[in-house]
Amino acid sequence: MNKEKQKIPRIIYIITASAVIGGFLFGYDTAVVSGTIGALEKNFILPQGFDVTAANWWLGFTVSSALIGCIIGALSGGYVSDKFGRKKAMVLSAILFFVSALGSAFPETGITSLGEQPSSVWAVFVGYRIIGGIGVGLASMLAPMYISEVAPAHIRGRLVSWNQFAIVIGVFISFLVNYQIGKMGDTEWLNTTGWRYMFGAEALPALVYFFMLFRVPESPRWLVLKGKELDSEMIFKRLSPTEDIKLLISNIKKPVTKVGTKRVIDSFQILKIGVFLAIFQQFIGINVVLYYAPEIFKSVGAKGDEALWQSVIVGLANMVFTIIAIEKVDLFGRKPLMLIGALGMTISMGLMGFAFFAGFNGIYILVFMLLYISFFAMSWGPVTWVLIAEIFPNEIRARAMSIAVASMWVSNFLVSQTFPVLDKNPYLAEKFNHGFAYWVYAAVSLVAFLFILKKVPETRGKTLEEMEEFWNKSRT
């Protein structure tokens, strides 16, 4: 029977829908803080009496503190999921999201009277944001890994890509929630009460995530690695009723017996590919576009409302082209999409840099930015997650994904911190009229194109065990 025509068991869709709620929370948690910056400054920073420089630094730290947790969560996720299982690790991330949502909304609870903001509450708030970041770090590596370990090979790319779409939706919903809450009162109300609703709203999807996870099975591949073959066999029969389950389990077990120095070195070579994929995904500049879009549009003359509206258009393009990737990743393959995306981003970022350099008006900037985000969303956005969930051998997948995803979060931080330097440096601003940074990202995109062309294999249609066999053959 043609695999494309096989009926997919309902449990596969339940598993995917449950796991990608973690992606939604990932997107919501990382973006929701954008609507609370004024309130955080008023409640936590200004009462400290810092000078302007220190106040700006501490506000920046408060806003980005969740990134610390993201790195911790990503690095620890491999150990936690190998030790306790993929399902329990995801349950832990759901609990962390819930605790962070309520704790960030009401950080003074148990310390002082509700509504008061002594300096000690600031530290508690940052602690809750770091807790949420740990949840994000865990979810960012667990969801694609778990889906890849349960999905049939011929639709695995599509299902893993839904996690990226959930992240995009989470970001978009956080903007809508912030906007709707902002309309409920004036600035004073927003600074005293509204910001709490923005953080607290995350508790609801966190609860949904928690309870949905009780409907999904443990990863059968993890069970095989733990010697629980009977449990694994029962789950595989539900997931892949037409497969030869005994043969599948036998193929999973084979690589575990291959140990020694050469195996470690070989695994390191594969790890390097995953880490570079993660690093390139950030250094091509995507979060500069997502984080700084309103400021970029304002810099070329857009008014406040116009800048926000143009940012919404960018967000919609991100969603639409992510759906295209979901539909085409298993048809065209991972490598062609990544190559087309990298080349398209090289051209569009180069044009955006030229538009700034030549002093073109804002409509050109918007068009080139939409081109860039479209190429990213149909390729490097979702497909990077697919590849790093597929390329690693079973016995190192969790730990390797931890390292790769942690590299992604560190790169995210570095790019976000260096863009203002590249953009606002007096010499570069004078010589390139704020276009220099975009030419840097265009150059990185070109290097990423060459990396995919030379180093990354095609994984479309291969089982995870067939990918291991590919690596074994490539070494001989």
TrEMBL record:
Keywords: Cell membrane, Membrane, Sugar transport, Transmembrane, Transmembrane helix, Transport. Signal peptide: none annotated. This is D-xylose transporter XylE. Its main location: membrane. Residues 15-460 form the Major facilitator superfamily (MFS) profile domain. Belongs to the major facilitator superfamily. Sugar transporter (TC 2.A.1.1) family. GO terms for cellular component: plasma membrane. It is found in: Cell membrane. It is a multi-pass membrane protein. Gene3D superfamilies: MFS general substrate transporter like domains. CDD domains: MFS_XylE_like. The chain crosses the membrane at residues 12-37, 57-77, 89-106, 126-147, 159-177, 197-216, 270-292, 307-326, 338-357, 363-388, 400-416, 436-453.
